[in-house]
Amino acid sequence: MAHNDIRGLYGMGWHAFRAVFRLYFGCRVFHPERVPLTGPVIIAANHASYIDPPLIGCGIDRMLFILARASLFRFPIFGPLLRSWHAIPVDPKGGSSAGLKAILDRLERGGAVLVFPEGTRTSDGRLLPARAGLGLAIIRSNAVVVPARVWGTHRAYGRHITIPRPLPVAVKYGYPLAFDSERAQAREASREASKAIYQRCSDRVMKAIASLQPCRDKSEFP
User: pTM for the full model?
Assistant: First the structure.
């Protein structure tokens, strides 16, 4: 399957999630046209719920690769869903090298990858500081970065909720960000200076996510 194709099991899941988000959550999607349909793309978003990945993924017209804890693949419901979405199992206790390698592999093949700069779900709905891992992936790839922000998912299915509640959710995509100058700086930088560049890239993306505000534009979720 091509990386911008929505077919097979992924396509079935894509259509099913769109129906669920539309009918159960009253989902609204803003500016999906800002996500390039071809070429390597990192979509970087805030993280408040397990439903964030499918919400962000079914809002765009291309396949989106996500990273998920390996332990989730053992659950009867989550496992098949994650596999149908071509999710990449990652062991958080095994360090970040496996996750980084998987991200770069998909990007090198022209794919789109979802990354959460905060590294974990928020416990209170507020944005968390960005970690340097995203910046490392940015510097080592040639992908553009599209910031995205979700609303309502914490109230609908946050850490404290057992069964998803039928509350409104929304996702908005920002304009793509380029990091040519940071990549040029990193090529000449020392190891310590490179770490600072990684964090600066992550912080820049997190700032772009925070700047996305709810809008009155016409949503594009059918």
Answer: 0.91
